[in-house]
Every structure is written in C-alpha cells, then in structure tokens.
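#dry-run=false #mode=assembly
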Amino acid sequence: MINLVWLVPLLPLIGFVIIGLFGKQLSKGLVGIIGSGSVFGAFAIALGIFFELTGKVEKSFTIDLFNWISAGKLSIPFSFLIDPLSSLFLLIVTGIGFLIHVYSVGYMSHDEGFARFFAYLNLFIFFMLLLVLGSNYLIMFVGWEGVGLCSYLLIGFWFKNTAYNNAAKKAFIMNRIGDLGFLLGIILIFVTFGSIGYHDVFMQAKNLASGNPTLTAITLLLFVGAIGKSAQIPLFTWLPDAMAGPTPVSALIHAATMVTAGIYMIARSNILFTLSPFTMEVVAIIGVCTALFAATIGLAQNDIKKVLAYSTVSQLGFMFLALGVGAYTGAVFHVMTHAFFKALLFLGAGSVIHAMSGEQDIRRMGGLKKHIPVTHATFLIGTLAIAGCFPFSGFFSKDEILAGAFEHNKLFYALGILAALMTTFYMFRLYFLTFRKSFRGTHEQEHHLHESPKSMTIPLIILAALSIVGGFVGIPAALGGTHFLEEFLSPVFEDSSFRIVHHLSHNTEYALMIAATIVMIIGIYIAYNMYIVKETLPAEESEELQPLHNMIYKKYWVDELYENLITKPLNFISDALHKVVDNQLVDGIVNGVGSLVNRTSSVIRLAQTGNIGLYIFVMVISIVLILLTRIM
Amino acid sequence: MITTYLFYFLSFLAIMFALMVVISKNPVHSVLYLVLTFFTIAGHYVLLNAQFLAVVHIIVYAGAIMVLFLFVIMLMNLNKETEPHKTPWLKFSAAIAAGLMLIVLVGSLKGAETIIATNPFNGNIGLIENLGQCLFKDFLLPFEVSSILLLVAMVGAVMLGKKSIK
Amino acid sequence: MSAIQIIPINWYLLLSTVLFTIGVLGVLFRRNAIIIFMSIELMLNAINLLLVAFSSYLSDSKGQVFVFFIMAVAAAEVAVGLAILMMVYRNTKSTDINILNKLKW
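#status=ok
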C-alpha cells in the first residue's frame, strides 16, 4: 500500500484535470461523482497506508519518484515521506475532504459554477496532499503555495462580487507575507545544512546546541510562514474575510485543512523548534494571544460564519500554544479533533444558511431546532465538542494543550482557560440564538425553512460521530487510556520528546480536567442566562453600543489600523514614486534617449548626400588614415 | 642590362598611359590608352617569366574587357566630350588625396623587400604546365566556384541588359 | 634569366603603387562612370602586377594562379557593371555619377 502513495495526490489531480477541462460538457452528477470519487480513492489508499504503518516496526518510508531539480550541489528529489505524522494528515485531508465533497454536491447544486467549484476543490486536495507528503521543504513549499492559490480562487469563487474579490486578494496578499518568511527560512536551511530534505536536516540539526542563533533565525522565519498560513496575530484578518467563499470551502480550507498547514510544518520541524527555546516562547505567546484575542472578537459577532471564523483563529491559537510549550502531540491531536468538529460546525452553518435561503445573520434566526432537526443535533454535538465537554473529542485535545501550558507556564494556562471560557460562551451564544426560542426572520424565510438534502446531512452525521469518538484515540493515561495517538506519533517527535519531559502527576491532571469542565459549565450558564432566560438579543446596527462592546464588535479596529498604518502610507509612497520617479525620472530618461537619438540622427543624416564622388573621397581619406596608423 | 632598360622603359610607358587614361577627355581615347597600359603590363609579365599569364592578360583584358568597354561607349554615343567636369577645387582636393594615398602606401609598403625567398629560383613557374598543376590541384575548388561566378555574372548581365519586361 | 633577379622587388612595389594611385586618382577625378570603371580595372591590374612580381620573387606559382581568379572576378564585375551602366544610361541619358544621388535621406 505504501508503494501506491503516488496515487494519493495523483487521483485528485486527475479529477481536477478532467473536471477542469471537460466540466462544461459533463453533467453535474458526473462531476460530483468524479470529484468525490477521486478523493475517496485517495482516502481509501490513505487508510490502507495508515493501517499498514501501524502494523510495521519501521515507521518512516521515503518513496522516491523522480529526480526533480539538480543543479550544482543542490539535488532535490521528488519524493514522498510516509511516517505517522504525514499518514495522519493524509487521513484528515482526504477523509474530511471526501465528506465535504459529498456535502458540496448538495450545497452547490444550484450554482452555475458547479464544475469549476469541484475542479478547484480537487486541485486544493492535490496541493494539500503534496504539502503533507513531501519529503523536503521545497515540495512542502509547492503545496503551500498551491493551497494558497486554491484558497484565493475559492474565496473569490463568486467573482462577480467585488467585496468577495477583495477578500480573496486580501487572503492572498497576507499569505504572501508569510510565504516570504517561509521561503527565506527554506533558503537559510539550505545554506546552513546544505540540504532541504527533512531527513538530512533533522539529522544534522540534532547535533546542534540548544539556542543556536542560526536555528533561532530559521525557526522564526518558518514561524512567520506559519503565522500567515494559519492566521495568527498579526496576519489573522484574512481568515474572517475568507468566509466570503462558499461554506464548504470555509469548512475544508479555512477550518479543517489548509490553515493547519502551519501546525503541520512546525510539528514536522519539531526538532528545529525544540532546539530554539526563544522561538518556542514566541510561538507560545503569539498562540495564546491569538487564542484570547480572536475569542474576544468572537463574543460580539452576529454573522454565523464570522463567529466560526474567529473561533477557528482562536483554536489555531490554541494549537500554536501547544506547539510553543512543546506539546506537539497535543497540537496534532487538536488539529485532528478540530478538523472534525469545526468542519462539522461549518457544514452545519452551511446547512442553516441553506435552510435560511442565504441569510447569515444570527439575529434573524432562532427556533430552527424543530425545522431542521438533523442539523440541530449535529450542530449541538459540534458545539459541545469545541466547548470541551466530556467525553467529546474537544475535551481530550484541549485538555492536553492546557495541561502542557500549565506545566510550562501558569500564565499561559490562565490565559488559555480564559480563552476556553469565552469559546464556550460564544459557541453557545451562537447555538442558542440560532436554534432556540422563536424564529425572528421574515415570514417568507420561515415558510421556506427545510432540512437539507441527504448528501448534506449524511456528512454532518458522520462528522458528528467523529466529533464524539475522535477524542478516544488520545485518552490520557490519567483516565486509564493508553493514548494511542501519542504512541503512534512518538517516532516523529522522539528527538524532541526526550528534551521536553512531561511530569504532571495524575492528581494535577484530574484537577485541570475538573477546572476545564467547571469553566465550560460557567460559560454555558452565562450564555444560557443571557440568551434563554433573559432573551437578550444582539444589538442592531443602528443602536449605540457600550464602548467595550463596540470595540470587540468592530474587531478592535485591526483592519482599520492596518489600513491606516500600512496600506495608506504604502499607497502614498507608491503614488509618489509613480508620479515622481516613474513618470518623470524613468520615463524622462527613456523618452530623453529616444528623442536625443531622433534629433541627432536628423542632423547626421544630412551627411548622406547621395553624392557618390564624395563617398569615394571619404573612403580614400579613411584608407589613408588607416594606413597611417599602420606606419606610425 | 637590357632587362633593366626594358623595365624602366615599360614602367615609364605604363605610368604615362595610365595617366592619359585619367586625363584624356574623350572616353574612347581613355579606353585606347588603357589598352596600351595593359600591353605594357603584359610586357612586365614577360619580363617576370610569366609568359602564359602575359598571353592570357592580353586576350582577356585587351581583347575581351576593353572591347566590351568600347562597345558600351559607342552604344551610348559617348565618343565626344559630353562629360561635365568637376569644379577645380574638387579636382585639386582629389589630387591631394591621391598624393597622400601614394605617400602613405609607399610608407606602409616599406620593409617588404626584407622578405627573403625560401624557394630556390625557378624560371619555369610561369609555364602553363606548372600553372595547370597548381590550379587543378591546390585551387580546384576555387576554380570550380569561379565558374559559377562567371555563370551568375553572365545571367545577371543578360538580365540587366534586357529591355525591362512589361 | 628573369627581371626579378636583376631588379629589386622595391621597384615593382613602387610601380604598382603608382599605378594603383593613378587608379584612385581617376576615381576621384572624373565624373564619368565608365572612366571610373576603367580606373578600377587599372587598380586591379596594379595588384595583379604586384602578385606576379612576388610570385616570381618567391618562386611560387600560387601568386600567378591567384591572378587568374582576379581576372575572372574582374570579367564578371565588368559584365555586370557595364550592364548596370547601360540601364542607368537608358533611364537617365547620362553616365554622370552625380545623377545617381538618390542614395540619401
């Protein structure tokens, strides 16, 4: 099965080529079958690889496909690396990807860009698999850029809307900032280690001293890349805007897979980061700040997808916190569970939007429980999972992260648990406002309310099931589990793990779990009290808000800050450069050279009299001069 | 001794006839003086033991080329003095330029006499046998190419000389 | 007995230089295209003479063979050149080279 790994990215690529070239001619049903089928094929192979890998002692396989680039001493093979980490990500990408493909068949059925959508989606899966499978940083970078491209294409999927296009551009440009950091990091890796293959780099890095300045620089640059791709402070503002794309895209790219590429990259390079304590500290600080910051913004948003988007940013912050404190397994674990429940929540939100005929404002919803029961049930499961309710999957992964944070630094833990509290609150606020009480929309909308088609509800149910049981692969020892995931991933993190020793006693762990559960109950209670008992509604646009409320409703004016601090000065500078340097200096030189030649030649051409006698005369004189130089 | 005198005599004639070519006002006279110049040059060839070349020279230049010139001049009816002359100032500068050319050429050719002949003297190289050996062994390809050149020139001349086809 | 054994090569050099210069002078001096043509022939012959002189001096027949080629080229040149002149004369009724001054701006 492992030898068939080249099929995994190839199948979606074939799907993309077929749909991309012949999409217009094919029927929608066939497009859906090709699109989903190709991903399902990849998923089946990924599953086979996963099980084959669990049975083997040797945990790392490199499959060389062909020699890709060789120039001088640089030689980059196009090869795939199969190890527990990549096989796990393979499963997440293809599995969630398949479910979302199926969901999209129903969700996008009325869209005229149906085939285009599936082509992009398949291309995305291809690049994401490339990112995950590559055995060196360059292949990862290719995938990294490819998913960025697909993200751009899919955010601006409805390209007739200017705001959506702007959102797509914003996502792309912000990603570019991060990508530059990543690229510089790769170059620095090559300069330092003379190779960019994971194996060579990590072998050499292992022998370096902790805190090596070059290593710190490399990891910081890589982290800049991760910041851009995974929407951390200060490059997070693109992700909420990216909700402009179709909801399945938000679920697949901007929640479950692409944004976790940063976590994958750091987890993959764990040894480099472990040896750079400074970077680890930066990662943890940025992670916890993002978690907290995005959570506060999420408290006051009224767009169902915006809330989920900020929640995603916040959860990604949690994952970076985990990476920063050295709980790599916890981060990967959370990537997995988050992929389940966040995809579920987004797809549920999509189902709600579908039922509401495109309405996204939770102030216009309410009481949807009885109209769309399946969506309601699955959405509730997702909400409980993200809130970290025992025994849903979020509980285990979040607990592991918080335990890691507690061990590392109590302040991180306090901030993390605060963010968790807010997460619980805004998720239940969202749930209560959407599904409970009575309907607040127009009559027309209420009349139109309907449960989504099977192709949409079945993925919801599967994801809900996964959100419930997904945590069981990582039951901590304190609860009598074996933590299958940690064991499975241990070969990947073995170089790091003996440098970061975990030594929490079981009693502490119990205390942390109880604390997390209490915090969750408090969050639910506050939300319940506010939105069910008191029936408060979020303020309408016209109303004056409290200063603090207004601040988080307006997202701390971060976009405006960037606009004034970066965009406007840049525009001013480029405008000035355009007017002065380009229009006057550069164009002046170019035009000046042209007109100089013109004017000179209009004078010199008069020497061409057409008088042959004169020509001969000049020729003779010239011969004389040439021969004179010979004599002299 | 006779050879020396012959050399001086032929040289004098050659230079004089050449000058007459340039100076004479009637083109027909110019042609005739040129033919005479060619005869004196042929005489030099004989002096230099290039007997075959001398004969060819007379046949080709005096016999063919100069007859061609004469034909053309007569066809154009240029035998009387019809040519407009250059201004005296231009003539003067032409003479100056030519004089300069002469001086510079002589100056730049100085030192050619130091070339030392490596082969022993052979008076028979100008004979047709030796020339044929050389021409058809060492210069066979240029010889063949020159035949193409002549063909092309012939076609071109016919082409140009025809009344334009309407 | 050859002249080259008695007369130094310098004299031949001088003679052909003078003939060549007279050719140049003719080109510069006259406006009749046919005379200019003849001056060019004169220059070619000056070179031929020099080639034969050196050929004799060095006892190498290659120089004389070269003269044959120059003769062939000269014949070709004269044929084409005179044809062109005929065309010019037919169109302009003149052989004055100053009439051919269309090669200008």
